[in-house]
From TrEMBL:
GO biological process: methylation
Keywords annotated in UniProt: Methyltransferase, Transferase
Record's protein name: SAM-dependent methyltransferase
CDD domains according to UniProt: AdoMet_MTases
Amino acid sequence: MHQDNVKALFDQQAANYDTQWVKTAPIRNCLHLLLGSLFNGLPQDAHILCVGVGTGEELVYLASKHPGWRFTAVEPSGPMLDRCRQRAATEGVASRCSFHEGYLSSLPASDLYDAATCFLVSQFIMDVSERAKFFDEIAERLKPGGLLASSDLASDVESPEYEVLFHAWLKMMSAADIAPQAVERMRRAYSNDVGVLHPMQVSSIIEAGGFELPVQFFQAGLIHAWVSKRVATDRGDMTT
């Protein structure tokens, strides 16, 4: 799916996005619980980059647990970023956040980050080489050895296992009060507009983007999540 089409889709969904997905909160809660454990060793004044932050679920979770951490939220959809900004203000963490409407490539240069999150974002990049370049852009923003926690829809779509997971996933969407037309749209999108790849291939793409071998730390249905470290060399690409 072209990035402009993805942006337009999320612009349309922003107002009702959190309500639409409220019944799938147990998946996010588990992901965030594990994320918190993986990031627990970061400095007390860590600076976290949240790529494709959406309405700010992971940002608010981490900010609530670590009062000394600062956050940079990057999101191309203005309406989604507005929701993130409102949520951060409601939770009393907005003063520790900066908000960038746009893509990572347009984020002004700054000190390197201690860690980054990128949840359900790279799956919309259909070209494998462009997807690796996307992870390379994240790596350029991280300190050597900096952590990346990322998730994407992933599966071996040619396998019998995928059929089981896919139909269970759609049933879960229906049970979550997702409109039938939206469920059907997901079915078409997973076939044509979303890069659902084998988990090992996604891991290889992350590694090709400048990270050490990613470790899968979470799976719920089609969602897989990995933690990886930026290669521990100073690439000399930004001022530290």
